[in-house]
């Protein structure tokens, strides 16, 4: 559980109002503000930094004003919701790989929240996932600023999430705990076959668009169209991190020199 001071600082970090009631509107507000405030990135995988799935993930987001992948930002959001008093449960999932198949178990950190007589999927850590929570069991498509989402049950113990008809991941109903992900996070962090070590990516949605920085290639999607620019030097890259993602980095991150035939599934907003 986070202390009161940390919760207040966290809400300030994502420009969110303290919830007056623990209802679906409050959950929706917190989820949306988090998605629009915290970058989805794999920078620390290339910088050689530790990847923490505990309160240190909260410190990274809140005090260092950084982002991360699902292991960190969904962990931090889980701790925030729990500390606010929401009935939140942690789950693990398999990610769909383009071309067929899925990852092994425990390759995605996700949660459900029981509120207002329903269960909602809260997931801020899947690149271009929904901006708002999704009803776990809904027979209808769920419209979202990031697309049309549907949920379906392959069996009684799992729920599959689709975006615009394309399967994203499978959530397994059995509750898990944060230490259960240690082996998978170690593999993602150290293996040359880790998809998170194949590219250097930082992305975040805008109110009406998206911004993605892949090493020195900046792409901004807005109502005016799509603009891609190759940044000229380290100073330009660092300036882009600060302007678009609010990150003040001392040194430009550089990609890990891994090249192999690892499965390439998208996690950066495509």
Structural write-up:
The structure is a single chain. The chain is α+β, with helices and mostly antiparallel strands and 270 residues long. Helices cover 27% and strands 28% of the residues. The protein contains seven helices and 13 strands. The strands form two sheets. The protein has an eight-stranded antiparallel β-sheet, covered by helices on one side. Strands 1-10-11-12-13 form a five-stranded antiparallel β-sheet. A hairpin with a 2-residue loop joins strand 3 (108-115) and strand 4 (118-122). Helix 4 (55-62) crosses helix 5 (70-84). The relative contact order is 0.15. Mean pLDDT is 93; it is low at 259-270.
- Name the average pLDDT: 93
Radius of gyration over all CA atoms, rounded: 18 Å
- Can you give the helix content as a percent range? 25-40%
What order do the strands of the largest sheet run in, or round the barrel if closed?
A: 5-4-3-2-9-8-7-6
Give the N-to-C terminal Cα separation: 34 Å
- Helices and strands: which structural class? alpha+beta
What order do the SSEs take from the amino end to the carboxyl end, as H and E? HHEHHHEEEEEEEEHEEEEH
The total count of strands amounts to 13
Q: Please mark out the parts with pLDDT under 50 across 5 or more consecutive residues, or reply none.
A: 259-270
Count of discrete alpha- or pi-helical segments spanning 4 or more residues: 7
Q: Choose one word for the global shape.
A: globular
Strand content: 25-35%
Largest sheet: 8 strands, antiparallel
């Amino acid at each position: 559980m986070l202390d009161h001071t940390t919760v207040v600082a966290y809400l300030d970090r994502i420009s969110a109002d303290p919830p007056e009631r623990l209802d679906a509107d409050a959950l929706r507000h917190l989820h949306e503000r988090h998605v629009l405030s915290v970058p989805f990135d794999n920078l620390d995988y290339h910088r050689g930094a530790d990847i923490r799935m505990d309160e240190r993930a909260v410190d990274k987001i809140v005090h260092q004003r950084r982002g991360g992948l699902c292991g960190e930002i969904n962990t931090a959001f889980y701790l925030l919701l729990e500390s606010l008093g929401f009935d939140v449960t942690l789950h693990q999932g398999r990610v769909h790989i383009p071309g067929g198949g899925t990852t092994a178990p425990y390759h995605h950190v996700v949660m459900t929240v029981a509120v207002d007589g329903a269960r909602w999927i809260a997931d801020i850590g899947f690149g271009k996932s929904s901006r708002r929570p999704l009803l776990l069991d809904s027979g209808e498509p769920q419209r979202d600023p990031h697309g049309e989402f549907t949920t379906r049950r392959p069996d009684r113990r799992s729920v599959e999430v689709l975006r615009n008809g394309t399967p994203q991941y499978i959530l397994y109903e059995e509750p898990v705990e944060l230490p259960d992900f240690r082996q998978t996070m170690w593999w993602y962090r150290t293996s040359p076959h880790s998809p998170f070590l194949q590219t250097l990516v930082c992305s975040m949605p805008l109110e009406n668009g998206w911004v993605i920085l892949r090493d020195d290639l900046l792409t901004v999607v807005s109502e005016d169209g799509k603009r891609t620019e190759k940044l000229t030097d380290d100073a330009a890259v660092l300036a882009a991190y600060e302007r678009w993602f609010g990150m003040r980095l001392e040194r430009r991150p550089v990609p890990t020199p891994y090249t192999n035939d690892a499965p390439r599934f998208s996690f950066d907003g495509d």
